[in-house]
Design goal:
Elements (H helix, E strand, L loop, with lengths): L9 H7 L7 H9 L5 E2 L9 E6 L2 E8 L4 E6 L3 E6 L10 E5 L4 H14 L10
Antiparallel strand pairs: 1-6, 2-3, 2-6, 3-4, 4-5
Amino acid sequence: MHVFDLTEKPEYIHCAMRNVYAGADFAHWLLNRFALGEKPLSEADDGDLVFYFNGGQFKHVGILRGAGRVLSKWGSGHLYEHDLFEVPDSYGNEVRAFAHMAPEDAYYVFTLYAEEKGVEFEDADP
């Protein structure tokens, strides 16, 4: 949720009330549909996303903050800034970088995911 800046949007809360979240399932959905622009880790820019994998399975995501630093949310509580590989062993040691997704694009893609999960959205038109 945090990396896509969805947490405060009323539309996101609408989905969360229906048990559809921008969590691990959403990340897998994005990865499986190639909805994110992957780039070499050496070319990642400040604000890009870093995904952590363990045994080829997605485990965690954070936002690159430059100079090998990452801002990520661990669990339901706190945000942490840490070194690229300063994460729990369970997150794995494979890190892949993906281009930053603008909040409006992230929201649009999330609505597609939510609709696949059965969430209905009211049309803006009368």
